[in-house]
Amino acid sequence: MSTDQRVLLCDVCQKRHLSKSAEEYCPQCEEALCRECRDHHKLSKLLKSHQTITVDKYNKLPSFIKQISQNCQEHDCFLEFYCKSHDALCCKLCLISGHKKCKETIFIEDFLKPLTGHQSAALDNIETVLQDLKNNICSAIKDRNRNMTEIRDQKRVIGEQIKEKRKDINTLLDHLEEDILQKVSTLEKTNCREIEEIVTKLEDEKEKVDGIQKEVESVKLFASNLQIFMGTKAFQGSISTNEINVQQIYDNGSLNNVTMKCTFNEKLEGFIKHIKTFGDVEIDNSEKHVSFSWKGDISAQIFKPKSVAKSIETINVRLGHRINITRESISGCAISESGHMLFLQAHRNSMMKYAPNGEFISESRINLKAGRIGYDLAVIDSNTVAVSSGKTYPQHIYLIDMGSTNTSQVLQLGDYCCGLSYSNDSFICCTYHNGIKIYDRSHSNVRILPNSPNAVDHTYVASNANRIFHTNWRDDSVVCYDFSGQAVGWNFITVYYVFRLGSKTTSFRNFR
């Protein structure tokens, strides 16, 4: 029987070579029933507990829900259980024969809320996430429209400023006035067009969310328990894609607030003969006036298999992707929040940027004035990466804007810095003369990590919110510290694995 057809024939009657229109559908039996067969179905002792739905309601279910089988293909029994360990549905016989030792099995009925009528906690969360998506999209659309109005108002204000200034100068500046007004108009049109494109993308995502919401509503009203259970898993995939698309629009700066402002030439008040430009118009799109709220947790679902910690002996390393850098002496690498890969050539004042697929994007100088700098990288946020200078002057850390590749800030250390990491709003630096030093973002608080070696030049460090991991080629060790300097858990490894980064080989070993 086709699960997508609108007019269903009674399956029981068809087995008797009769053609009768079906009035109801039994998800457990996976059969359409005419009025007479439905009555027999309800009177049967074995089948009277089955919950049937009308054909009209059945046809309103999403097609993938209707295609979910209710019975075990191996034992032809009703699927009533779910095994988290194997991520599989089970019937009673499956549970006995193949899942005796599985501790993470649940009864599907227990997954549903009691007395709520085909409504599960996971489906509730699906609706919450969908509503979050819709609210965030609507907020973003409203904010983009506000920003367009704001830019147009700013254009008007700037025009008035220009005209007011124009009263104080002679006709020699007419063509300069025309130039700057044209620039304002071009920037306004360009940025408004970009915002309109973002609004269109957001409206497309909103339409997708509306479609999923309708399907969820149909599932809540008409689907069987198992269909809800498996449908939830399918909904999660669709919603995750919508959520990623919307979040990417947020993360890539498309919702940054765009403003225009005009700065006049300082010589405008001086000698007119020295004025070459009427002024300038700048765009600032670094600030967001909208924020996203995610109340639902699309990742917190029962379908995620329980993760089991692996010992290092069971971990196998395989090549995921090869990036052809065509450079020597690569001393630093990092992955940005957007997935772009950043590489440094040791002391070459050069940073290379590659796309997640390995495609070369750009190569830029870290600092136009500096000489042989550059050793290690640390990602600060979605827009900023920090670069250590290594054993060369000046003894700085450079904060680089990943979009423009301009240096946004320079931190003076007073010491050479090789390995570099960033956590808890602090820089963790492998210095030449003072071991591992920790600098806060404002550079007002500097301290040496207790118990760290004095000689940590040409070594590397990594960190998270609670731990600092230091690799030392002098004694082939990796030491884990907390931020107070205490060694935590383990502190020595013996050589088993060797990885090569550029011309530098680093040895990693099995934990003792």
From TrEMBL:
Domain B box-type: 5-55
Gene Ontology molecular function terms on file: zinc ion binding
InterPro entries with a match to the protein in the record: TRIM45/56/19-like (IPR047153), Znf_B-box (IPR000315)
Residue stretches in coiled coil: 159-215
Record keywords: Coiled coil, Metal-binding, Zinc, Zinc-finger
SUPFAM superfamilies cross-referenced by the UniProt entry: 3-carboxy-cis,cis-mucoante lactonizing enzyme
Superkingdom of the organism of origin: Eukaryota
Keyword Zinc recorded: yes
Protein name: B box-type domain-containing protein
Organism, as annotated: Mytilus galloprovincialis (Mediterranean mussel)
